[in-house]
Fold these 2 entries.
Entry 1:
Amino acid sequence: MKNKNICNYLFSFFTAITLLCSFAEGETLRWAADTESGAPFVFYESGNIQQMTGFEYDLIQLLAAKLKREPVFVQNAWDGLILGLNNNLYDIAINGLEITEDRQKAVNFSEPYYATYLQIIVKQGDTRFKNLSDLSGFKVGTLSGALSEKVLRAQDGIQVLTYESETLAHQDLTISRSDALLFDAPIAKYFSEINPKFQVLPTPVGSITYGIAISKKNPELLKQINKALGDMKESGELKVILEKWALWNPNTASLFNDMSPSRTQPVSFEKYKDSLNLKRSFAESVEIYKKSLPLLLKGAVQTVKISFTSMILAVFFGLVLVTLRLYGNKFFQIATTFFVEFMRGTPLLLQLFFIFYALPSIGVEISAFTAAVIGLGLNYSVQESEIYRSGLQSVHKNQIEAAKMLGLTKWQCFWSIQVPQAFKFCLPPMTTDFIALIKDSSLVSVITLVELTKTYSLLSATYYDYVGFAMLTALLYILVGLPLVLLSRYLERRTI
Amino acid sequence: MISLKNLSRQITHDFNIQNISLHLPANSILSLIGKSGSGKSTLLRCIAGLETYSIEHEQKPERIGFVFQSSNLFSHLTLEQNIKLALQKVQKKDSAEADKICNEVLDQVKLSHRKSYRPSQLSGGQQQRGAIARALALKPQLILYDEPTSALDPELVDELLDLMLDLKKIGITQVVATHEKSAIKKISDYVGYMNSGELRLFEHFSKVANKAKELTSEEQKYLQLFI
């Protein structure tokens, strides 16, 4: 069992590397989206976390078939979708990415596959606003990084609230933390219109088009995709998909130059609506938890892998740092002090982004897992080294002088006397530090890794159950940290 | 045997010991007395080589043991491990030989039954004797003690003094900084009185009274405490 796990671990590690190396030439089409951004783009079917769906999902399946390539999905946080393209983590990104000038500087966009506009959402019965200019002086929520955020920021006097997910934005509107929301029309349709608590203002705000983002290094793929998209528009296949999802609108009709009458029933939209009306009994919820458990466990295993590998790095590098800082020459002392202050003074999130997204631009390409381990490991090595430093310095002076009188060398004294004694002082803060590391490992979801917290986000957004899954996830985190706590207690007892 | 001529040490600006000369024959015991801060510890630490100092001429043994006031024994090791550590790591003796020496010295300080105890499980007096055993294992010619009895209960003090007298019999020179009246009377061959970094040496304590006339009234007052 143990061996198998290690094999799995190595296997997934190497697959990740091979994936990185196979530069678009294979038969796969690696496509990225953030399933957490939800309906109707790319999301998991409510009540069936194994099944992905969404109009963009359908579009990709068709597109890949046209290109005769196997679609392979890569999860990435929405904010990082464009960055990941340039790092060759995947071939294309599709997730309601509005074609904007700024983004076109970084990546190529296909011909638009959908045209739409923004809409204002308010609480049912709220008559204060008619259009965008009415929102001045109020709190308005939207998705962070979306075009709608830019639109809001350009409008004077609006206090912009940004969210990672539509669900949370709607929750805040319900409890009046915000006065209104501004979303792409598809989101308004899938999140606001179907909920009697909200009201979508009919006036369209601006106009936007979605495109598939492709790395500038890959102009050939851009051509192929544009051709395939053209075919899909021509044949009406794309229209069928959009109609199934009840997304066909005049903007898209004029974009496609297709004024033909509607032929397809909005089956996917209806199915989605039905899935929302499910009032689950407790027993049904438990059934869902049972079904989701393997996925949560998979997330937990990823969390364990990342955390424990990072811990080993943190301990090792922490020892190197503290040795250099306390016993190195002037140069090493200054260098390590600088390093410690730098790593301690900057956010882990920033460090992760830097390692994963900025290093490749200077030619260092590393997998998400490696980046996560390096980021967490280095960050925590600094804290570890400070713990060791305080531990080493709390060893009684007499103990060191006694060692000297016995003729032990500095090095012998360090390893035989100082380190074992410092270990006892260091154990409790080290345990706390490692538990913090396990929790901080949730940050690595920003660099495409799906660990426990990300799994929670996906599951809760899929089943609209934020409480039950939160408790399950919390329990798993505690279980992951428990062996550490027990080990630490055991060691503390042993080293009286 | 130990012989020093004009040993000085400057510690920052406000305190130093200066021009200390001293001659002790083998297997004698010197008690250093004097107020706190008079430089007793500094002198011991200079002799031990734990401090840097300047000196005109010195002659001292190669192997010196040091017994601190407290926290002598390595707290994470058993008594036996404490003793064997330097034997094996410094003197490179094999395990069997280290065992043999360890048993001998523990016998000498009457602690054989506490071999596998950790320092925290020993009484204060046992810890001090353990520290002496550890020093003895390396066959020192000189042992320095920095207030070895000050952390001990009165009844344990005698135990330690008896041990020091035993060590004298086997030819070990000993210097002890102390405030312990009984110690000075019971064991000293010489008494050194330290005042503001200067040493005044007396042969045996009984001589102190005779020389009292040479002393300042303040010094006399302090020394009276020990008579």
Entry 2:
Amino acid sequence: MSTETLKIPQIGQLAPDFTLPTLDGEKVSLQDYRGKKVIVFMWASW
Amino acid sequence: MDAQGPEKASPYVQRANPTYTNAVDEENLLGQLYGFKAIPNGFLIDENGVLDYMKFGGFDIRKAETVKMVSEWATATQSEDLSSEVEQKTPGEEHLGAIALFQEGNGQYRQGLTAEALVKWKEAMALDPDNLVIRKQIWAVEHPERFYASDKVDYAWQKEQLEKGI
């Protein structure tokens, strides 16, 4: 089990990059959108 | 943020038919990186990958005020000061510990070992009771009728569960 603590990202800092599968089975990274403004919205079915 | 994967998320996406990309975060990777324990959240990130705005909890793209704020941000040529609503406290070590247990449970869930996954997820919940991403995932698997039987999630039931401490 991890015992690290997390330094949460702050406004004005680089957003930590992530790569996730899309619904179409592709992969998408935040990094792919460098040069564009990005809106990240987090939701779930529950 | 569905641990139950794309098959659970897809119907909502098909209904909304969005023009933007939808990714599936089964493992709560974003909660691990950004420290949140609940959704819906919204982040605005500029051309250089810098965080301009984060809202944890209650980010609703259907609200007029949210649409206005996001539109103004999106069309601004210079970065402007947004009143960010960062109410996140630095999470303790239980945060990442609980997510690690949650991820172990996800591995079992994907192998069809639902009972074992629930045991692991409940260990995660016991370690970090404030993590609603984990708690609600447990509810959705144990009580699918409260989530998927109709068009509407039964939020009144969720409130009762929280009041009962379940």
